[in-house]
Each structure stands twice: as C-alpha cells, then as structure tokens.
Amino acid sequence: MKKLVEHYCEMPPPIRPILWRLWHHILNRLDADYSNIFLNYGYASPNGEFKDLVLAPHDEPNRYGIQLYHHATRGASLQNKSVLEVGCGRGGGASFLARYHQPKEYIAMDISERLMAYCTQFHQAPGLSFICGSAMHLPFNADRFDAVVNIESARCYPDTGAFFQEVYRVLKPGGHFFFTDMIQNKDVESVHAMLQKPGFSILQQKDIRENVVRALQLDTEARRRVIKERAPTWLQQSLYEFAGVEGSNRFNVFSSNEMQYRSYILQKPNKLP
Ligand SMILES: C[S@@+](CC[C@H](N)C(=O)[O-])C[C@H]1O[C@@H](n2cnc3c(N)ncnc32)[C@H](O)[C@@H]1O
C-alpha cells in the first residue's frame, strides 16, 4: 500500500483515476467530518514572508495550506475577477481566496462528486460555487475567465497537456494561469513544452521546494497526530507517506535532486489589435 501511494503518479494514465478514487474513498471514510480542508503540502518561509498575512483565528490551523494558495496567486490581483479553480479538493483554498482576495466569482471544480457535495454545504462565501467536472474537458465557453488556479493536482491527470490546452481555451486574452505542483527533475522541460504549446507565456516560475519542506517540518507533528488518532495501525505508514511528514520518502525526495515543487504564473497573450 505504501509503495502504491508513493508511486501512484507514475502508474499508467488509465489506472490513475481508479487508484485516486479508491484512495479518496479511504480518506473520506477516515475523515468523515471533513476536519481537513486542504490536501496539499503547504508553504512556509524561513525569512518571515507572509508575516503580514493576518488570518482569522479559525483559519490559523490551515496557515500552511493557505500560504501555498496565497503564494501561488501572487503577482496578479483576483479582486472583482472571474476565477476558475481546477482540482479544488476539499475547498479550503477556494474558500480562502474567495473570502480574502474578493473575486467577483470563484468557481471551484473537482472530479469527485462527493467532495463537491460536501464543499457546497460546508464553504460559503460571496461568489463562491462548486461543480463536478474533469480537468481535461472544462465545461465552459472559450474566453470565460480572468484567472485559472491549479494547486497540487495536475501531475496525476491522465493527460496534463490536454488540461493545459483547456485552461488556455477558457481564459480570456491576457488572463492568468496560476499553476503549482511537484514535477520530477527529468520532466521539467516537457512540462514547459506542454505549457508553451497552446501559447502561454511564462511570466514567473520558481522552485519552492525549500518552502514546502519548511511547511512540512512545521506541520509534521499535527499531521502525525491526526493520522494516529484516526487511522488503523496498518494504514498509518501509507498515510504518513501521503501526508509527506518528516522522514517519509515523499519528504526526503524534496531534499534529493529528483523532484522539484514549482510554481508558475502564466499568461494567455492579449489578442493583437
Ligand atoms: C492533492 S489534491 C489537492 C486539492 C487542493 N488543490 C488543495 O491544495 O487542497 C488533488 C485534487 O485533484 C482532483 N483531481 C484529480 N484528478 C482530477 C481531474 N481529472 N479533474 C479534476 N480534478 C481532479 C482530486 O480529486 C483532488 O481533490
């Protein structure tokens, strides 16, 4: 089981959605009251970046997951914009951006019907809504959104290139694509080629491994505690792996040169007059 969790994204594309559903079925059973509203590794900075991000007390326990969203969407305001998020998971990031960054509308999408039913009930904010759908077939007209957000999700899609083409299609000219994910070193060039194929310009890109590792270090104790409280012993090692706690292979791989964690700000060019 632990090996499956570790190498899930290297499985053949048609198998990934099946494994993903099975894994999330297990997670949903263990966390039936949805106490975790983020499914990412988080972001923290040793030099105090985001010290000025003042959170409401009930958001503080999710600070590192929130900071990843705050970092990912830096550089272009979402205020009064139409925003789509793809792969929103349990909706914690969607709720944060809708409440703190004040877009006109924020449509958050995920392939899991069950998660979207939960999110609709649990997260309320002006302009925020949730729908079920696939990243490779975005159910929207062309030129619909000012921004698309995608956090720690795309690497497991059966066809990431098709997803990038879809994002390009639904963005307005001049619109931004905020894309953040783990990428194996050997795949960085091919990901860039897939991003450039539809025509995206890369405005900013950064390897944020150090920040992700720092967040995992700071959050390891809390992650371990939740897993110990909720999971049967036979499943705990797999969950430590999934959660990337200090000492797990997932955690260690970030300190090797095998894996990067990259955040991109991309733009669909403005049409020529
Ligand atoms: C690691 S979670 C990240 C969730 C969220 N972005 C966060 O940071 O908390 C990845 C999410 O991508 C979703 N996902 C996987 N394949 C998808 C697809 N083909 N289309 C849309 N969402 C997908 C999963 O259901 C899962 O909720």
H/E element string?
A: HHHEHEHEEHEHEHHHE
Q: Strand order of the main beta sheet, please? A: 3-2-1-4-5-7-6
Strand composition percent: 15-25%
Classification by helices and strands: alpha/beta
Mean pLDDT: 91
- The parts where pLDDT drops under 50 for at least 5 residues are none
The CATH topology label is Rossmann fold
Record field, number of beta strands: 7
How many domains is the backbone divided into? 1
**What composes the largest sheet?**
7 strands, mixed
Whole-angstrom Rg:
18 Å
Give a structural overview.
This protein is an alpha/beta fold and 273 residues long. The protein has one domain (2-267): 3-Layer(aba) Sandwich (Rossmann fold). The chain is 40% helix and 19% strand. The chain is built from 10 helices and 7 strands. It has a 7-stranded mixed β-sheet with strand order 3-2-1-4-5-7-6, with helices on both faces. Strand 4, helix 6 and strand 5 form a beta-alpha-beta unit. The longest helix has 22 residues, at 209-230. The termini are far apart. S-adenosylmethionine binds at residues 20, 38-40, 86-89, 92-93, 110-112, 115, 134-135, 151-153, 156-157.
